[in-house]
Each structure stands twice: as structure tokens, then as C-alpha cells.
Amino acid sequence: MEVVQQDDEALVKLENTGIERSKDVDSAVLGKYSIWRRENENEKADSRVRLMRDQMIMARIYSVLAKYRDKLDLYQELLARLNESQRSLGEATADAELPKSASDRIKAMGQVLSKARDLLYDCKEITQRLRAMLQSADEQVWSLKKQSTFLSQLAAKTIPNGIHCLSMHLRIDYYLLSPEKRKFPSSENLENPDLYHYALLSNNVLAASVAVNSTIMNAKEPEKHVFHLGKCMWKMLMTSNG
User: What is the domain extent for residue 217?
Assistant: First the structure.
């Protein structure tokens, strides 16, 4: 019983804080998006973003209750405010990323939430729905983690064996060549100032190969392009003669 009472008190406090703060939004202060009132200039830079997210959570809960209790006008109003807040919030993670209309959206949402609380408030039911939302979010996170692990393992298994440690294979193949074959063709082009020189540093041999081949294939004069490839502590020079 003590735990339930604490949950109820915390929920009431959260709702009261959100509604009161939405009333006090100072939309006249345009230069600083991280404040609610002029005297609170040290508030965190994402306070409005967090408040909008909290409001949207409560709006979703109240919309379910409104539909269940046949308060269709209130249900439609909550959905409208929810859509407006979602559009204003977008992908913002800081108050500075919010549009100027965000203050009006917060005020409007605060008003409809206050109205919904007067008509629909049921602390026990809201607490249960919040817990259900939290459990659903946890399950979704766990599912995404499992999916990420599976895809990582799948990617590792689907890479052909010949590509594993490709740079090491290439180095071994190079040193197995006879001294005559180790010389780069057209090595005089490495320092020819009349050609186009590119320095490409990458630990990904395949990606570097794709970049070089793509450039050569789409160049008007491929014989004039020279690539200097570097990897980690050793350097490999390559030239292209088309």
C-alpha cells in the first residue's frame, strides 16, 4: 500500500508540474530557448523538449481513457494537440532546435491536459497504463538489442572466408612475388607533377579499392590519375594507367 501511495503522489506531482509550467511559458523570450521564465535562466537546455515528451505521454493515456469513456470531443482534441506537438518536436533533442511555435503548442497541450484531468482523472488506472507503457518500451528495447546482435552475427557469418584478414593475405601475396614483380608499373608517375594525385588513407582495403576503381571508371582521362594509398603504419603506393 505504501508503494502504491508513493506512485500516486509522484504521478500527481508530475502532472501538476507539467500543467503549471505549460501555463508559464514565456514566448516573448526568443533568444533563449532553455528557459520557462525570465528568472530561471540556468535551466537545462532541453527542458522544453522533455516537457513536450512528458505532455505527449499523458496525452496518449488520456486519449485512451477519453475514448473508453465515450468522451469523443475530448478524444479528438487530445489527438489534435498530440499531432501538433509531435510535428513541433520532430527530432529535436535541445530547446534551440524547436520551432518558435513550440511555446504555443506547450500552452495548448497544457490546457487540454488540465481539462482531461478534471474529467478523466483516475490515479490507479493512469498508473497502470504508465507501467504498461514502460514495460512495452523495455520489451521493445530488448527486442531491438536482440535483433542488432543477430544482424551483427549474420553479417560476420556471411562474409566470405577469403575476405577475412584480406590485408594480411595481400601482404603475404606481395612478399611471395619475385623481386622483379614487386616493382610498381609506371613508377615514374608517382612524382609526376603533371598528373592528378590523390592521397587515400583507409584501413578498409575493399572500400579503398571500390573508391579507386569508381574514380578511374568515371574519369575522362584515367591515365592521368595517380592514387597514393596508405594503411596504418605502412604505406602502399599504387598508380593507374587506365
Answer: 184-239
